[in-house]
Automatic annotation (TrEMBL):
It is a multi-pass membrane protein. The keyword Cell cycle does not apply. Keywords: Antibiotic resistance, Cell membrane, Membrane, Transmembrane, Transmembrane helix, Transport. The chain crosses the membrane at residues 20-43, 63-83, 95-117, 137-158, 165-186, 192-216, 237-262, 282-305, 317-340, 360-381, 388-411, 417-436. This is Multidrug export protein MepA. Its main location: membrane.
Length: 450
């Protein structure tokens, strides 16, 4: 990908959007699909209890991903604004400082988890049946958490640097290595959930190395440089990245509370159904986030360049893209639910299989609303209005979904759990469009002075 893609006005805006969006979506698909493959190997090679344990562990992965999102989204937005002003020196300083900060944070997280593994496992909802699986998985993931955080941060920033296709290559490297190592460690060496965790961790090591080689080459605009820790910039990075981080962190909190309530009202078998829903939901959410990430660096660039109309056009393109993605997602879940569930559960287990198919069809309706919430939140992040993005992110990711969960349980018991996400995403979509309509014309007022 040409590093001058951001600047080249001879390329149409739509073409530039597609050149950013398509690699971003593909990267997110690859990430989601190899995460699903991870679950499939665990389910087929270890068992349904192990699959439930991995799902119980997912909030911790959401947490470390949320940390990376906060710093990568915040830093990439600031970097893109600097590039829009053609201030390469400041962009490099922010990039270098951000990388150093997340390395320090990852070491801290690793130490904290190591000394509190039992408490964390039970806090996440582990039972006597699943706790050893959870501890085995979490302990290894924590050792590799720095590579998770740094790899994703570099993946986001490499797009801002003008090389979105390379982000896709890095994710593909990670995905292929994870799938191969999953097969070797789980199916051949029989290392169980520990094998799955080691495979996932090593795959992040490979992608981190790949991304680092890009920023050490001369053809990249962004390079590592000398910097001073600037707490004002760190605060700004965290402030801008907070909405996206909140979305991911909220996912972890929601998964944890859903697991607890499913165990209470439906039983441990329900956690297996919810594990499958989570893998499918992750694929759809990552599709929407990929569209958002295709839009974000361009919107931030035009924000820095004071071109408001281009920003609004990009928003419309992204919203149209999520309409297509949403309709396709629901159609696939309605037409092929048996195929999707069969990847995790043997169809011969008739009762379990049929119930998983039924709840997948119900849950998939929420995909019709999800994308609009993700795009509108991402747009406000791109124009340095994180407070508005936070309202939407907290709404769809935490406040509304938990309110819907407890309301639907009160109305319909355990059955209501499967409908709660439809309610929360739909209500959040209405709120998001109201905010957008009220604030879209004020975006130009917040454009920074040159």
């Amino acid at each position: 990908m040409d590093a001058k893609l951001l600047y080249d006005e001879s390329i149409s805006l739509r073409t530039r959007f597609l050149r950013y969006m398509i690699p971003s979506v593909v990267a997110m698909w690859v990430f989601s699909l190899y995460t699903m493959v991870d679950g499939i190997f665990v389910a087929k090679g270890v068992g349904e209890t192990a699959l439930a344990a991995v799902n119980i562990s997912m909030p911790f992965i959401n947490f470390i991903f949320a940390i990376s999102l906060m710093f990568s989204t915040g830093a990439s937005t600031i970097i893109a604004v600097h590039l829009g002003r053609k201030d390469i020196k400041s962009a490099n300083q922010v990039f270098s400082m951000n990388t150093a900060v997340i390395v320090i944070l990852s070491i801290t997280i690793m130490a904290l988890v190591h000394f509190n593994l039992d408490n964390i496992a039970y806090f996440l909802g582990a039972t006597e049946t699943t706790v050893e699986y959870v501890k085995n998985y979490l302990g290894i993931i924590a050792l590799f958490n720095g590579f998770f955080i740094v790899s994703y941060s570099l993946e986001v920033i490499i797009k801002t640097d003008g090389f979105p296709a390379m982000a896709t290559v890095g994710v593909i490297i990670s995905a292929i290595s994870n799938i191969i190592l999953d097969y070797i460690f789980i199916m051949h060496f029989h290392w169980g959930v520990q094998g799955a965790a080691i495979a996932t961790g090593l795959s992040q090591v490979f992608s981190t190395v790949f991304f680092l080689t890009h920023f050490l080459r001369k053809n990249s605009t962004l390079n590592f440089s000398k910097f001073k820790i600037d707490f004002h910039d760190i605060k700004k990075i965290m402030f801008i990245g907070f909405p996206d981080s909140t979305t991911e962190l909220s996912c972890g909190i929601v998964v944890m509370l859903f697991n607890i309530n499913i165990t209470k009202y439906i039983g441990e078998q329900g956690v297996v159904y919810y594990s499958i829903l989570n893998y499918v939901n992750t694929l759809i959410l990552m599709t929407m986030m990929g569209i958002a990430q295709g839009m974000q660096p361009l919107v931030s660039f035009y924000f820095g360049a004071e071109k408001t109309e281009n920003m609004k056009k990009l928003l419309k393109m992204a919203l149209k893209a999520v309409v297509v993605a949403a309709i396709a997602s629901v159609a696939i879940c309605m037409v092929l639910p048996g195929f999707i569930v069969g990847l995790f559960i043997d169809p011969s287990e008739t009762a379990v299989f049929s119930e998983a198919v039924r709840v997948l069809k119900i849950y998939s309706v929420s995909f019709l609303f999800m994308g609009f919430n993700v795009i509108i939140s991402a747009f406000f992040v791109s124009v340095e209005k994180p407070s508005l993005a936070t309202v939407i992110s907290l709404g769809r990711g935490l406040v509304l979904v938990l309110a819907a969960l407890f309301i639907m349980i009160a109305i319909a018991g355990g059955e209501g759990i499967w409908y709660s996400t439809i309610l929360s995403e739909g209500v959040c979509m209405i709120i998001a469009f109201v905010i957008l309509k009220m604030k879209i014309n004020s975006v130009s007022d917040s454009i920074p002075a040159m």
